[in-house]
Amino acid sequence: MQLILTIVIPSLLILVGIFLNNARFNSIEGRLTTMEGDLRQFYRDLGRHEADIINIKERNRSS
Fold first, then answer.
1. What is the pLDDT of residues 23-36, one digit of tens each?
2. CA angle, corner 60, sides to 59 and 62, nearest 5?
3. Taking the mean position of all CA atoms in its chain, how far away is CA 23?
4. Model confidence, pTM
5. b/e per residue 13-41 (b: at least 16 CB within 10 A)
6. What are the backbone angles phi and psi of residue 19, rounded to the nearest 5°?
7. Rounded to an integer, what distance in angstroms lies between the CA atom of residue 33 and that of residue 39?
8. For the chain, what is the radius of gyration of the CA atoms?
């Protein structure tokens, strides 16, 4: 009985902790991947807007 209390239960608690931390890290990784995609889309849109602004400025200069 003492063996169970001193070895098995702490080992099980450690394994549960590892499992829960792994699930948390997977959740964080998923959120970061989503944020990365959003940032890429933002910079794509920003580039398009910047190109539009440059085109408008060039049209205004030539008019």
1. 989 999 999 999 99
2. 65
3. 14
4. 0.62
5. eeeeeeeeeeeeeeeeeeeeeeeeeeeee
6. -60, -45
7. 10
8. 27
